[in-house]
Amino acid sequence: MGVAHNPILKGFNPDPSIIRVGDDYYIATSTFEWFPGVQIHHSRDLINWKVVAQPLNRRSQLDMVGVPDSGGVWAPCLSYCDGTFYLVYTNSHTKDRLKDTHNYLVTCDRIDGQWSDPVYINSYGFDPSLFHDTDGRKWFVTMETDFREGRNRFSGILLEEYDEKQQKCVGPVKKIFLGSDIGVTEGPHLYHLGEYYYLIVAEGGTEKGHAVTVARSKQIDGPYEIDPENPMLTSRDKPWAMLQRAGHASIVQAPGGQWFMVHLCGRPIGPDEGYCVLGRETAIQSIYFNEDGWIRLTGGGNEPFESVTVPYNGQMPKPIHKKYTFSPDAPWDMDLQFLRRPMEEDTMSLTARPGYMRLYGKESLLSKFKQALVARRQQSFEFEAVTALEFEPDYFKQMAGLVYYYNTTQYYYLRVSYDEVMGGRMLAILSCDNGEYLEPFEYVKLPDTGKVWLKAACDYAVVKFYYSLDGMNYTQYGKDCDALRISDEHIDTSAFTGAFIGMCAQDMSGFSKYADFEYFEYIEK
């Protein structure tokens, strides 16, 4: 026996969909506007997890150019049947009242193989799932949105049969569930266990009111009876709980018969414990079916537990310390992701200067089209990130450096640029706070040539920025900055991702001035 300490997937890994194939467990999580799309994590002990696949890694599978912040890939569902892995997902082009949410299916015979080009399914709503029934039939399940005044904007769960030979849904579309009184019904997953079909949905919105609702029926198309003790899992009325925002769940059975549920959560910090700078994460709970056939938490109640006993021996993972170097002969590290599209040859090169990553400056950090930005998730409240770059700008619209990024309206950018008044290279922070652009501290004059080291050090609510000209002696640039800004809760518009730290380059003159990055190091405390 071992113990899994929550969350098991730290830092912006929401909407978990879990399966087991033999001795292997897999969890798929949402990636929103980050490319490649979907993270698939693997474990054999439910304690230690590693990203082994990012299946949507081609523009033919996932085109997110122009999608809004927190658009793109929502709530994937991973399943397995007869030797094939199935993944369904939403590519959300808009995310406000009028939602353009397009649902697709891809397949592969290996979890880490080349997944197929997508099959378009529908655009009724989002959070699709594919259910393989015991009789061999397949069913596509999704929530439905309704933009009309006075209507329920999350108007219920839809069911339609999927014909694999025709690669499309066939037969009638039926609304099988309207949700509970909690409302905001989304994230459906279907299971056929014994005499019942169990429908697990997320409700209450993905913030502090989030919850897991369970309903069941003896027929796949209902009517569905809601758990009399609903919600089955929630933190909505438990401000003391370490794991807040608990909801959006799926379940899996271990070989010995024990059941587990994985679910979305968040760990708030700061004033009134109100800011989830690590975004929405994934936790695990031990569950069982009581004598009445309802799902219950092992240990009682409906508050998420911080630690869970699992039927495997495993040591808890250590804090991450990784140094990313850039060799054209080495596999690309899946920690490092891009915004909205793959990095093409006109944007990034690992061969132009061997041993360095060359980023060709593209559009500004406001752009939803073509950015030269490479970053990884923040997965600890305490971390340092360091990079070394060589960059010789000659125009103030050319810049490169280290970015602490939430979205196009929220970031700190410690950048090397050019200033004609200072007569050469300079260092400064460009800060964007809910779309308001600031340069909060005075420029620092840099030598006209030579390498510059940049560092960010985050300690819960505070982030500090540093620079060095020799890689050993660092000077803090400016004053301490507010890390709580890089969170869902601080953003003026609906936002559901998490903090990233990384490297970027811009040339808003349009001539692609390049910067060479020697390495990127991420160290958790």
Would you write up a description of this structure?
The chain is 0% helix and 49% strand. With 525 residues, the chain is mainly β. The protein folds into two domains: 2-310, 5 Propeller (Tachylectin-2, Chain A); 321-524, Jelly Rolls (Sandwich). The two termini are 28 Å apart. The mean pLDDT is 97.
Tell me the CATH superfamily of the largest domain: Glycosyl hydrolase domain, family 43
Overall radius of gyration: 23 Å
Uncertain ranges: none
Query: How much helicity do the residues have?
Result: under 10%
Domain unit count: 2
- The name of the CATH topology of the largest domain is Tachylectin-2, Chain A
Tell me the total number of β-strands: 40
The computed structural class is mainly beta
Main sheet attributes: strand count, strand direction, barrel closure: 8 strands, antiparallel
Strand content: over 45%
What is the mean predicted local confidence, pLDDT?
97
Number of helices: 0
CATH class placement of the largest domain: Mainly Beta
Distance between the termini: 28 Å
Which CATH-level-2 architecture of the largest domain?
A: 5 Propeller
Overall outline: globular
